[in-house]
Amino acid sequence: MKPRNWGFWAGAAGALALAALAVATVRNEYYFFAAYVVIQFVVLATAWNILGGYAGYVNFGASAFFGVGAYIAVMLIKATGVPLAVQIAGAAAVGGALGFGVGLITLRLRGIFFSIATVAITIILETTVINWRYVGGATGIQILRPPVMEPFDSYTKMLFIAVVLLAIVAVAIARYIETSWLGRGLRAIRDNEEAAECAGVPTLKLKLMACTVSGALMSAAGAPLAMYQSFVEPASAFNLTYSVSALAMPIIGGTSHWIGPVIGAILLGTVQQVVTVTISSELNVLVVGVLLVLFVVAAPEGIVGLARRFAARFRKRES
Amino acid sequence: MFSLELLRDAIVFGLLVGCFYAAVSIGLSVAFGLLDVPHIAHPAFLVLGSYCTYLLNGYGLDPIIAGIVLMPAFLLLGMAVYRFYYETFERRGTEAGLRGLAFFFGVVFIIEVGLVLLFGVDQRLVEADYIGKSLTIGDMRLPLRLLVACAVALVLTIGLSLYLSKTFTGRAIKAVAQDEPALRLMGANPVRIKQWAFGIATAVTALAGALLIIVGPVEPTTDRVYIGRTFCVVVLAGLGSMSGTLVAGLILGISESIVLTLLGASGRRRSPSACCSSCWAYGRKACSGASSLSGFRPDKLLN
User: From B99, which residue of chain A is nearest by alpha-carbon distance?
Assistant: First the structure.
């Protein structure tokens, strides 16, 4: 393996080891509840960034994909009772198909139409689920958790490890996309789509690929929600707050590098959890909105951009 | 099973509601259709207008008068917002377009949560003489509040349409939408004109917000439902066409009303989104079909 690859995988193994240590030592279940949400947002933000940050196509429909993931998991549990891994895989498959479909319809047009179409998709899907009695309709559906596997002593801890694994997979995929020919093409599209077309970049194909992967990962993030909450209802699964968080976290962290969404998600997710518990849950949405506007106006390249500028200034002062 | 009277009632109801949808979307038609600002926060301003109307109604002001009183304040607000948007985003090129979208999305949530913190999540209503009564024509009963909203909506749409085509500033607004560098060569300042146009769009939204709270109760998350509807009307109308907005509003109102009658209330929200999604799927064809009434610009869709 190349040296930088080795560094990444060492870091990932370290994160997993840390998570395992926490599972073995920490007794208070609440930390795992809160940490699950934060890591889930890492997956959501990383997935959003694949299309939104790398290609520049803002996806307002993260809630749609997330809700689809949750409801596919519900359907699989009700129909066959398959284990969590299969639920996640199934949700990812459907999410990818949805991303491909939406992309096929709207990615030929300008970016703003893609964005509005994703908002429309959220409403359509939510209404479809509300009218569908099999998955619970408007009243929601209760899921019974199966008995927990060895060596975990509680279902929450198992879900936490599952989502950490999912986050590592998502970040690895995002990193691979960023450093490969796909990422170069997406960057060209983001900078100037017309020029990229003229230079021979297959823009529609690349955008469709990015949209499919992004959709698949966002739905995979939503799949464990069914087990995590053990009650799923359309109004909260398709809540627009997931969209704004999935948008704000990469922008705050930095959209050009794969570490940006991770930083943004951990930072903003932790702030959200703290504010929800200490002040009010409505205020946490205000915090997201204000931080988003602040960063978009003042620091558009996010924390990664600020760090780069700081490092450049530091290097200049040294030389 | 399916009576003609039901269909007739649905169509009449759809016409009334359609005019209302047109009024609600006409501000966006100017902001997004003509000025190309990705104004996702338009429904949020609408709900803000509704709440301001509710406040003024608490002092005894008739809601429509309250809406008219709010127009100058919202004009200034719109001008300020556009100035800020221009200085921060539009000036810095197309890459900033993505951030402009994110900015407006953030503004949506700030307004929404601000309203929740100030007013709570309860639904708010206004009181007026014409709310609660209905007009009986033959065996049809038309709610008076919808008739009032429809009438004001028509006046608003026709007024704005005349303003854009007959007055000097209106024509300048149309010109800046068509070719900004050419307008600069003519000696007009495109930024000032766009600022004024966005201000007018927001002022019209204030009155539309008053209509919104007349037609039904409003709560802070009402804007989420209207994002789909307003953009659907604006895109179906053909970007920048005022008369097209009226036609598109009517199409949306009637189709929604028929779906409501046939499928019941829970299926209703799906129809506008499905309508606009299928519109985008067929791109120019649907839009140019619906709005061959006024100049439609295909290149704006595919830029």
Answer: A296
